[in-house]
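Input record (one chain):
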Amino acid sequence: MDNTFSSCKIDDRSLIAFIKREIHNLALQIGFTPHRAAETDIIVAELTSNIIKFPGNGELLYRSHQTDGKKEIEIYCLDNGAGIENVFKIMSDGYSTSNTLGQGLGAIKRLSNEFQIYSMKGWGTVQYIKICDHADFKIAPAAPGLNFSALSVNYPGERVCGDGYHIKYTTKGFQIFVGDGLGHGLNAHGAVEMAINAFKESTSNETTTILREIHDAVKKSRGLVATVASVDYKTQTWNICGIGNINTRIYNGLENKTYTPYNGILGHNIPRTLNSTIVPYQKHQIIIMHSDGLRTRWNLNDLVSIIKQNPSIIASSLLKDNIRGTDDATVLVGKIN
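The corresponding structure, as predicted from the sequence alone:
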């Protein structure tokens, strides 16, 4: 099972039954009880009916996921509607803006294990929902260090994603890999999977060395572009190096800096000389890395209080506003606690 989210555009009420069935079957396949799958149906029905009722169209991104023995469904709901003026008010059961029972968002929050929502007037709304196989499972607060979320979406019509990411924890800190196989489809997917395997096997803490190891490992593939960002807790530094067009940006409060990668293609041609960029590692930083499936002319400061939000909300907001729709797309957001 990979990290890719499936996408469904919601612009007609007839699609509600289809997407409910799709996600219901995913839930049963990973071991949800029929009762928990039925509760998942309620969440999906509320999300999709709200899309039709208010903005008129939107998108659901969803996947089943198993990690550390936990079985879960993750859903993002995105729309470009009028937005919600008072999110806290409409979260209360019984509040309605359309003469209905007003139990939509309250029901979603009550039945899910994690629910995040962000909305801005005239911009639209993004929602993140995590549904675990046990309704009473409590999501643990983010541990000190990296709290991250990532979204990978296939090129329209493809069954696999040519982008990929992986986070590896070491005795010294952690390392982040984001890569984009050339083109899209199976060959691009194969290239990025080979790169992730090489990244996992590397024992180096130096990003330039890791990229050279990946370059050697993927020479029989189509090739890819990638960036590696490594943190050393002892020296309190980021070590960043990239080859090709992976956009990497670090926010320190309202200020941000973009780290320019080298030209080249891993597996084909890379510069003879590679130097990493050393950056101070500090609490409350936000690192954002994404493939060229997203446009690069964005600024978090354009979205009111977005830097206070969960990484899942930041990632989905960037995807909603900037996805090109002409390639695979991946965005990874990490917040330093």
